[in-house]
Amino acid sequence: MELGLSLGDNTKSASSKSFFLSKNNITNTSSDDYHHQKKNGLVFCMALGINNSSSSGRGGVQEEQNNENQEENDDDDEENTSEEGNINCTNNTPVQLDLLPLVPVPVPVPAPHRNLPQSLRWSSDNGSSENGSSGNGGLPVARGFDVNRLPAATGMEEVSSPNSVASSFRMDFGLFKSCVNIIGVGNKRNFESAGGSDGGEPERASSRASDEDENGVNTRKKLRLSKEESAYLEESFKEHHTLNPKQKVALAKQLNLRPRQVEVWFQNRRARTKLKQTEVDCEYLKRCCETLTEENRRLHKELQELRALKTSNPFYMQLPATTLTMCPSCERVASTTTSTAAPLITVTGTTTNTSKAPTTTTNTTTTTTSDSIPKGIPFLNSRPRFFPFTTTTNNPNHPHQSAAS
DNA sequence: GCTACTGCTTGGATTACGTCA
DNA sequence: TATGACGTAATCCAAGCAGTA
Q1: Which end of chain A, C or N, has fewer beta carbons within 10 A?
Q2: Where is this region: Disordered (predicted)?
């Protein structure tokens, strides 16, 4: 993609002066020129990271995982096709905006965080006090016998058994111990309260979704996972966004839940994580759009002023034209200065991803093609077409491209 | 202060459907 | 091609919470 901004007659696109804006290292190469241009107010700084990694054809959940892949284990079964967003200069795969590194992603906080906006709260934050540790020293609340619990509810011994299935599943986070204790105590309490409640604590709503009660009536009462259980699942979710059957069974055993419950929890967790990330991305793109709108407005105003200036004083614009271009290969923005008098601003967009597009460097300001818009983000294709783009192929006369090749 | 009601949010569970081995 | 496992998306709905009268 090439973003070009030229002042003057851009038919002479050959440059005598260039600066480059690198996506990844803005202050590295030719940063002096960059700052120089910035001082002159010529820098169009669009902080969109560009990722040329194509998204997985399955599931479409990679965008939510990009920023989390770094913490994924190597043995993760997920299809983490998005590596670092480094651009291969010879890669002609479709460019894709990688928004995530610039977006503050909420960090899962198991502890209560009611002061967070709801849109940024994690799903585990039910903030409910139904299982609150009121007056029992932080211990899990006593609950009635939970029909969601496996009949073979295990105590600490089984849970912590090195021979258990869970031993093959990474459980080295700090909650492990406490959860084991919690489960152990919880089980005890459950069985105790089955015979007689210790009072004061609300009993967990027994749940067997789609299970049948004694009368064969389909009941859909739901349990609410306790904070400890949720935190435990959250920790597991940090490790693995998906579970293989072994891990599922192990987790279910650890938490004394049915494997189906663990499975559903992870399904919901993935879905809601993706939803949250989509909201964040949407918000970020909205801000980008606003910035671009404002920039566009400013440029148009500048254009009008320059045109008016030329009309009133034709000798005023005997200035070299400046062209800003972004190399699609290395994502540097280059400015070229040509000796021209035409007070014309041209913004061009060039992509190497389109082989069909002809080489066009226009001296008009209005050509916009969808080819210049990354296909990876659908709604970018429907963005306001106020920003003039022109699609061209590789230009052999492009100073930077010729240098790169 | 207590209670009942209402609207909203959360999150567990279900269902439908797509993908892949 | 049929099938089962597993994923996502959409949805349902019980439960909790806050505001109000």
Answers
A1: C
A2: 54-93, 114-143, 190-223, 350-377
